[in-house]
Write a structure and sequence with these properties.
By secondary structure, the chain is α+β, with helices and mostly antiparallel strands. Helix content is 23%, strand content 22%.
Length: 263
């Protein structure tokens, strides 16, 4: 059975690898490393390719099913005709569904959470996702400790497309990277979390995972509150908890959703 890399090769015309890398939004060196097996083939990268090529993420990842992206309920037009191509909005929604399916998320009546974090702000607006989805800024590391009202366009790496029903305060939520191994196995390195800045009261967040100011940046830990102090506890017990006083104004917000990539 063909591998992910072999399926990627079929999408690249002869001597067009650099051009394809540009179309897919990755450096040419990154694509070369992926194709040569020097980097893993991540679901994030495959999703970029699927959206750019208008093909099924499920087919690209597993080799199963139809290669062309077809919106749910699409019907062929005329005798012997192929399925009508989905609109841009249908393409994004179907990609979200495929991604959720591939990472084992359930999609019940109100939809469960899913994410396509490489979508730009302009694409999010053009795709008219506002009714079912919310476009949440994914912040570059230096901007992660800021407040939503202070965010500049230059601070934003992309947009996280998350089902609106999973967010309490979309307008006051930002997404940030989790760096390092202190929250493994719950949140491995390069996980993405959605932080609700409207929920920053320590007393109401006992035993919840939160984002906090620390050493001029931001860290993500589990909060434990007592009468004398507040602990920020890592999931990885090789790391030590952080301790600060209850009146310390360090909490940025509660982590309400996470995109976790294993391996």
């Amino acid at each position: 059975m063909a591998t992910e890399r072999e399926r990627l090769h079929t999408l690249i015309p002869y001597r067009a690898q650099s051009a394809k890398a540009k179309e897919w939004g990755v450096p040419a060196s990154y694509l070369s490393d992926v194709l040569r097996g020097r980097r893993p083939v991540t679901l994030e990268f495959l999703a970029k390719v699927a959206l750019a090529e208008n093909i099924s993420l499920r087919w690209l990842k597993t080799g199963k099913g139809r290669k062309e992206m077809v919106a749910p309920g699409a019907v062929a037009e005329g005798p012997g005709a192929d399925f009508a191509p989905p609109s841009e909005n249908e393409r994004l929604k179907e990609l979200v569904r495929e991604m959720a399916d591939l990472v084992g998320l359930e999609m019940p009546g109100p939809p469960g959470a899913a994410i396509v974090h490489f979508v730009t702000a302009a694409e999010a607006e053009r795709l008219e996702i506002s009714e079912e989805y919310a476009a949440i800024p994914l912040l570059a590391d230096p901007a992660a400790a800021g407040a939503p009202t202070e965010i500049k366009d230059s601070d934003i790496e992309g947009q996280c497309i998350i089902y609106r029903s999973r967010l309490r305060n979309p307008a006051e939520t930002t997404c940030i990277w989790v760096r390092g191994d202190s929250m493994e196995p719950v949140l491995p390195d390069r996980s993405i979390v959605a932080v609700n800045h409207a929920r920053a009261d320590a007393a109401a967040l006992n035993n919840r995972i939160v984002a906090v100011f620390h050493d001029g940046g931001v860290t993500v830990k589990r909060l434990q509150v007592s009468a004398d102090h507040i602990l920020l506890v890592p999931e990885n017990r090789l790391h030590s908890p952080l301790v600060f006083s209850p009146d310390s104004d360090r909490i940025i917000g509660a982590v309400e959703w996470a995109w976790v990539q294993f391996g």
